[in-house]
Amino acid sequence: MEPTEGPGKKPLMEVVLSGFGGQGVIKAGQILGRAVAIHEGRNAVMGQSYGPESRGGACKTEVIIADGEIAYPRVVAPDIAVVLSQEAYRQIGLGRPADCLLIAEEDLVQVDAEAERGRRVARVPATKLAEQLGRRIVLNIVTLGFLCGTTGIVSADALKKTIVESVPKGTEQLNLRAFEAGYEYARRFADQERKERP
After folding, report:
1. Taking residues 136-148, what's their average pLDDT?
2. For tag attachment on the chain, is the N or C end more exposed, with fewer CB atoms within 10 Å?
3. Please, what sign has the CA dihedral across residues 109, 112, 115, 116?
4. What is the per-residue pLDDT for 73?
5. Which helix (H) or strand (E) holds 82?
6. Secondary structure of residue 20 in the 3-state scheme
């Protein structure tokens, strides 16, 4: 599947993933960065921040991907913002640059239709898709599948290899199914976008 009209592979890409503790936001950032650096031979740096709560507190990870050197290890103007909670949308989504693609969890994030007019928003029911697989905890991997299928920022093969290397033993197949669920949803999202174009 070709990615939908997203950022694609630019010489330097800045990605922010944000949500709350327990959603696997940090793990998703680690997998994305490793996939790019280890399996695609590009450069990547990742930073993370989170509240003092082990679950439920705000957390965020920033991943910068580049073909050359990365001069500054923090995201300045994200190309892609992934938000998995309403608070993440308020803090990250609404303040993002005009050309930044927003990927929002469909059931947990209510986007501001007026604020998003003319901007690209992709919504994914990551929690619901994860629940259909029997484990809500894999919503982060569903989200990575959707991110991959929507933007083409990293290859599906690189991400799948990294998922297998990064998840607990015995959960590899579950996580690969989660990735495929998000990736397939991205394909359907792209088809729907094409139908809705004038």
Report:
1. 97
2. C
3. positive
4. 87
5. strand 80-83
6. strand
Q: Do 164 and 176 contact (CB within 8 A), yes or no?
A: yes
At residue 188, the pLDDT reads: 86
What angle, 0 to 180 degrees and rounded to 10, lies between the N-to-C axes of helices 156-166 and 25-39? 120
For the domain made up of 12-191, give the CATH fold: Pyruvate-ferredoxin Oxidoreductase; domain 3 (3.40.920)
% of the chain surpassing 70 pLDDT: 90
C-alpha–C-alpha distance, residues 97 and 186, integer Å: 23
Structure token pair of residue 131: 């629940």
pLDDT category of residue 105 using cuts at 50, 70 and 90:
very high
Global model pTM greater than 0.85: yes
Question: What is the reported pLDDT for 51?
Answer: 63
DSSP H helices, 47-155, are 86-88, 126-132, 139-151
Sequence ranges of the domains in the chain? 12-191
